[in-house]
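Handout, section B. The chain below has 159 residues.
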Amino acid sequence: MTEAKSLTSSRNLGPFSGDFDQMFNRMMRGWPFSWADFAPSSEPRALRAFDHMPKVEVKENGKTYSVAVELPGLDEKDVKVEIENDVLTISGEKKVEQTDDKTHYSERSYGSFTRAFTLPADADRNGITAQFAKGVLTLEIAKTANPPAQVKQVAIKAA
């Protein structure tokens, strides 16, 4: 069923269903997450800023940690991975595709994003590889057999 047909049939549910939909959509606009606005409008829906964080999956086995980040529509040149002070940061930007076409409706997101993760103590900061394929960035983080000590004893001397 197409979106237009499903919207039409949902409005035929009762005499107030269209009014209810409009009231609900107005109420949801103030929420901190985006909500699809199905209210009819003669103006095109604006292109939105990147309003969500990329989805991430973190796995672990005996030898490595694996971090997979969904980045549809991006190329590896649009993404940056950095490690600073035990923090792994993944950032990037999806730019608006410029055309002469008039956009009437878009649910696509554009803009920059950043995801940051504190590395576990046994992660080898020098043993990290990254691959990008089919819109997914995959980081393999090797585990080290000798993780650095998390607690350091400071000797106290008499004055």
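Note. The chain has two domains: 1-38, 48-143. Compare this with the example in section A.
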